[in-house]
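Internal tracking record. Fields below are filled automatically when a chain is submitted to the structure queue. Please do not edit lines marked as system-generated. If the sequence contains nonstandard residues, flag them in the REMARKS field before resubmitting.
Queue: standard
Priority: normal
Entity type: single polypeptide chain
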Amino acid sequence: MIKQIIDSNNSCPNDFWNTIKKLKKENFKDPSSNIQPKEWFKYFNKLMNTDYDKNVCNDKKEYTTFKDCNTCTKMLNSFITTEEVVIAAKSLKNNKASGSDCITNEMLQISCYMNIDVYVKLFNLILKSGIYPTLWRKNFIKPIFKGGCFNDPSNYREV
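SYSTEM-GENERATED OUTPUT FOLLOWS
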């Protein structure tokens, strides 16, 4: 294979790069692609201990909104202040991947000081109505292989 790369580099650059691309595809195939999406969902659902069918409160009764929950405190139901938004923005970690909305933590931190009133109104509206953008419910998980068998989801960590 190395002789083929050297020969193609001397004769035709296109052949050289086609050979390199072929090698990359063969050597860097993502082993996690062998695991079916249903298996990933089942594994990460179990890992996160999430029940997607119910909204359950501490007193083990089912509720459709936070307003119906009798055990929620007044502090949790009070309006969000400017200070709380600034503290939350400052506590965001830098150099993290964006969510499905493509907004990074750095973008939020920088824009927070210019648009603080907008953020406060937005979060208070969400708190009051109980409705938030459905895009915020989506996330992306990229499994990173830890070791062991490639076909076992538990040998991957989520990122």
